[in-house]
Amino acid sequence: MTIKYLFQISIGLYVIAGFSAVILSKWHKISNTASNILCMAASVFGIAASIDQLISAQGPVILWKINSSIPLMNFTMTVDNVSSFFILMLSILVFPVSLYSIGYLSHYYGKRNVGLFNTLYSVFILSMILVFTASNTIFFFIAWEIMSVVSYFLVVFESEVEENRRAGTLYIIMTHLGAALMLIGFMIMYSFTNSFALNSDSALIPEFYRNIIFLLLVIGFGTKAGVVPLHIWLPYAHPAAPSNVSALMSGIMIKTAVYGILRFIMIYLGVQNTWWGILILVIGISSALIGVVYAFVENNIKKLLAFSSIENIGIIFIGLGICFIAISTKNETVAALALLASLFHAFNHTIFKGSLFLGAGSIHFSTHTKDMDQLGGLIKKIPIAALFILGGSLSISALVPFNGFIGEWLILQSIFAGIQPGNAGINILFILTVTALALAGALAAGTFIKFFGITFLGLPRSSHASEAQPIPMVMNAASGMLVLLCLVIGIFPAPFIQLISHAAFEITGVSVAVNFKGSFLLTAFPLSVSGNVISPFSSLIIFLLSILAVLLIIRFIGGKYAEKKYGTWDCGFEGLNSRMQYTATGFSKPVKIVFRMLFRPSRDLKITGDDTYHPESMEYIMTTESIFEKYIYDPVLKFTERSSGVIRRKLQTGSIHLYLIYMFAAILAAMLYNRLF
Amino acid sequence: MAELFYVLLQIGIFVLISPLVSGVIKKVKAMTQKRKGAPVLQLYFDLTKLLKKQAVISDKASWIFKASPYVVFSTAIAASLLIPVTTFVVPGRFSGDIIMLVYLLALGRFFMTLSGLDTGSTFGGMGSSREVMISSLMEPSILVSVFTMGLIAKSTSVYDIMEMMQSGNVSLTHPVFIMIFLALLIITLAETSRIPVDDPATHLELTMVHEAMILEYSGRHLALMELGASIKQLVFITLIVNIFLPHDQLITYTGAMGIILSIAIYILKVVGFSVLMALAEVSTVKFRLFSVPNLAALSFMLSFLGFLQYFVFGR
To answer: Is A566–B94 a contact, with Cβ atoms under 8 angstroms apart?
Structure first.
């Protein structure tokens, strides 16, 4: 019973936060602080409630029920373990993001309607809670639409920038295309089951329509998740939004799609065909690879993070795909393991991507630019933010001892368990998945070497970087707590995995044994999956001990440490300047050349002056093109434009008589249809 | 107690033997070129000398520059614990598997590439950028190779893989092992910055990768970077010789005598393999940077064919 009240208090506090922001909106600072503190309090209740629900073995909790007189319109909010897991991710992210907003939004004071922003922010969070708890398709769809529209308003909050408006438009169009397909899927479901409730009997739907619903829902949810090739809105919309909203969008909003796939396809429809899993796996592989390659060559810090989100959602889809395939080939243990790995990676991604987006926001706050080629040397100006972004980067690059590694390890272990003699096609697909994960992982590490190295190290490349402003303490604290959580999960993964396995258990019904046992040093806090053991804790201990030992040995052999400061080798020119270092563009050039089929880079070199060896000026322009936009979306757009032009000229002539004829014909057609069929 | 002994033995062997490997390779290369060459123990002298020297640090560098050598060194140490030099002293298993090994080494590489960017030097950025490309392209083949070996042994632990190869249940000349061996050989050449991917003996800007990243280092930091790199090299060599040339099944002694004999044979194998690596190095030329993807593709195809051979076409 207490769980129910905790959830209700949490939701109530979000509502109050939304209202208080509007009521106090005259006083920007007070309104901002009050509503964000309320959101933080709400998230604490959310965390407590969802952990409570996951641990307690009880069934779904009904939070709220409206029985209306309209048939089929009974709205219920239900929380089961799957919902609680997603609410837990949301709440864990909302706490630091709200803390961050207290400092971050200070640059809007007196310039923009901060109250309105915070109201939208609270409604955005509430809409996601509704998405996670809705128990019939209509209610789900309404919540989904609120989420899309409110996030659109947040994306275009700085609407005077042309780029942001374009990003918002692209986002709202793409998300509605997805939503429309989803709605068709829901309608097909209803036409067979005569019920919108999610516990209705999906066995009534014939096989053929089940496949259609699957495809419609995958495209619908895939658009929100930003999987390739439906991703084109994501790298524009996430950077356009203010950074606290980007953190929420990238951290949790794109995972509503994962929730949708779990809720509607895995739990409701049930997985029957192997090709479903193969499709999801292939989508995941292509998103992971294409996302990371585009992230690598990107120079805008927030766009880079957005592309990296595409990569990570790809990895989550890879886990889901393996799970689907394992279910359809009746391999329950592998299915449970893969789902657990996928959910765990989703959980991790929420945390580290949240912290990185907050960090990117801090960089923008401090330097007023998002272009890496303008930055450099920031580690000396904003050392604390640098430390936390380094932590986030290590985590997202799946390096020991951070949580990203554990997620990657679990996914690899589930593939390992999934490769069994016999099924040749699946085995080849699985080993190619390993290949994709390896390439994506290595390139992701490269991406974040570039992100951290170019932004924070070396010499400042412009006055933006050399005149960086200090960052408010609350902002650093917010990203710091997320990084700390990454580290804690990375070192002691077992309790977190057990928590998440409650959610996975509800779906697959198979529990995966995750053991704690072991003695000091060698096998402390191990994580073991089907006999394979790792212990990040032991590695960390070894790591620290060997640093200590080497310090002592060096002291013993080499004596006291002495150092001399001297300039970097400048090749004999007079003094090093920032133009001698590698730029972000230069850094990613080798990878750009290797994967040139994805970019089609073209270069343009202009030299003025007649002397080849002493030119007056040189201009070098390198352009790349996005093949998805050019070869998929542009032709579709052009076709639509052309055909709508034809329709406008031929059908919509503006003559009222013609319109009356259309109406008459439509009524006649409807009557005939009813008569004949 | 046995665990502590195991840890100390592993670390001791790796730290003490790894400079020898570099020395042997250099000596063999010199001999093939009819030079006398530096003494085999030259790297030991260099390291002790470097430790005593004052460190010159760039005034543009941050704490990352000073921290990186320690991270590179200790990740190499942590990685070395995951590959037993002998199966005689392993008390249980060290808690880490072959996947963790790959990601531990990646941590060291992460910091090494960052340190290349830290000083604002032209060369550092160049080295880092190239290293990222090469290592990214090599990664799939590493993971597929170790995955295939793991799948055959039904475990991702290196110890289990070694036991499987020693057990006599598998034929050591099975095509899958030959292909994975060749794939790992190419990986080892690439990961340890050897010809045909990189040239450890040159500081020419057109060719250097690893040397470019550590160009600004001096004193004890340089010593740690060099030692870390040679431990990493020994990690790969140990992985290959202990998996593809198992020897512990031949030893009938138990106890201390068995351990000593096993380690002696291990050192012989490592030296033998170093000679092989040196010969491989002198018999090829350095590739153009953008030919390295072809090498990576070759290595990947070998490991992938190995997988197909065993799991798809049947054994």
So the answer is: no
